[in-house]
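Dear H.,

Thanks for agreeing to be a second pair of eyes. The structure we're designing against is below in token form, covering all 374 positions.
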């Protein structure tokens, strides 16, 4: 299966910041003042694939936009702040990226006072909530981020219904069903244009494998995995490297015990970063990199480049659940072909089966939330 993933896809970020290719895409970042939004916006500003960069948040976006606008690259930058400016931000967008939301921190979480929940409806920056206190539950996280995504995607459905929607906000297993149901309500749903960005799992897998194979001529950017997200971690769906296709020599293989340890590390990589930051933050920089990589691949495909493949969490009939993360062939109109899971080993089959119950529940929770969202 993974032989269908090209080296061009694996080096998407380098394409994005190259000087040879150009595009005229308008890209919006919703949640642009936050920990992911700012570095993501910087990477997008640095790309010749982007001609207009629209930044939105409920606070600080004029400053972020002014700062980025001094960079000597082609994209023009404009900042928009507050719900009343969101329609203008979205007008004419080709791609909308949504990192807005609140991260859940293990053992030190956040809950919002009710007085501040309305203000948080489009937040991308935790500091803009002066009523934050310790003690967020998983349900609190879901309700907060679900409301944010529902509000923002509703605005997208109204003001840029043809745009590609790339959602980073967690939990992706629920936020993608929410976005889909919101677009259905507005009568503009196209499953080929709504993506849950799971690229960070791919990036981490590539990096961790290269670390384990140091001295074996293994380059992280020349490897690709397929993964499926489950809860706040991921279930490693197909941990097989297509080294012959990806110019990785020698072929990369692992004994079962090492493969299981590698899988566990990829699943817990987010916690690894939170702990390293001593609770002061989460995986913002690597997520920004991964988000930019996905957007650059999508823009390449939209401009006519052939053979562009990335993994994302999308509407799918590959498994028994209605949404799943697999390699996707991208095209001018978004998702062109779902490349599926391919043949799984018994270990991989066991992991996919173990993910099904919680994945079904997360999807259903998102769908029910969207149906009741006013």
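And this is the sequence the design step returned. I haven't edited it by hand at all.
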């Amino acid at each position: 299966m993974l032989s269908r993933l090209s080296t061009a896809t694996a080096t998407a970020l380098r394409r994005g910041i190259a000087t040879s290719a150009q595009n005229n895409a308008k890209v919006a970042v919703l949640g642009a003042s936050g920990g992911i939004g700012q570095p993501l916006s910087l990477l997008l500003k640095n790309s010749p694939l982007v001609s207009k960069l629209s930044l939105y948040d409920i606070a600080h976006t004029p400053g972020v936009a002014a700062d980025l606008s001094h960079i000597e690259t082609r994209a023009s930058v404009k900042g928009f702040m507050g719900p009343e400016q969101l329609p203008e931000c979205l007008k004419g967008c080709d791609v909308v990226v949504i990192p807005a939301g609140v991260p859940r921190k293990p053992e030190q979480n956040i809950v919002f006072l009710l007085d501040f929940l309305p203000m948080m409806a489009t937040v991308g920056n935790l500091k803009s909530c002066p009523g934050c206190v310790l003690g967020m539950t998983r349900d609190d996280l879901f309700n907060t981020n679900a409301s944010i995504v529902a509000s923002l995607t509703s605005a997208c459905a109204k003001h840029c219904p043809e745009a590609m929607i790339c959602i980073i906000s967690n939990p992706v297993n629920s936020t993608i069903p929410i976005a889909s149901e919101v677009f259905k309500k507005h009568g503009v749903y196209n499953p080929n244009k709504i993506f849950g960005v799971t690229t960070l799992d791919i990036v981490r897998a590539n990096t961790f494998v290269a670390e384990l194979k140091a001295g074996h001529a293994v380059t992280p950017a020349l490897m690709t995995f397929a993964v499926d997200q489950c809860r706040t971690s991921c279930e490693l769906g197909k941990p097989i490297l297509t080294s012959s296709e990806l110019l990785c020599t020698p072929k990369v293989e692992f004994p079962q015990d090492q493969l299981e340890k590698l899988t566990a590390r990829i699943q817990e990589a987010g916690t690894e970063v939170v702990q390293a930051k001593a609770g002061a933050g989460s995986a913002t920089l690597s997520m920004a990199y991964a988000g930019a990589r996905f957007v650059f691949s999508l823009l390449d495909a939209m401009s006519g480049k052939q053979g562009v493949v990335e993994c994302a969490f999308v509407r799918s009939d590959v498994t028994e659940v209605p949404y799943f993360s697999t390699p996707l062939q991208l095209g001018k109109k978004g998702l062109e072909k779902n490349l599926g899971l391919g043949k799984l080993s018994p270990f991989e089959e066991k992991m996919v089966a173990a993910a099904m119950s919680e994945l079904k529940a997360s999807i259903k929770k998102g769908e029910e939330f969207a149906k009741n969202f006013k």
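Two observations from my side: The first helix runs from residue 7 to 10. The chain has twelve helices and 13 strands.

Warmly,
E.
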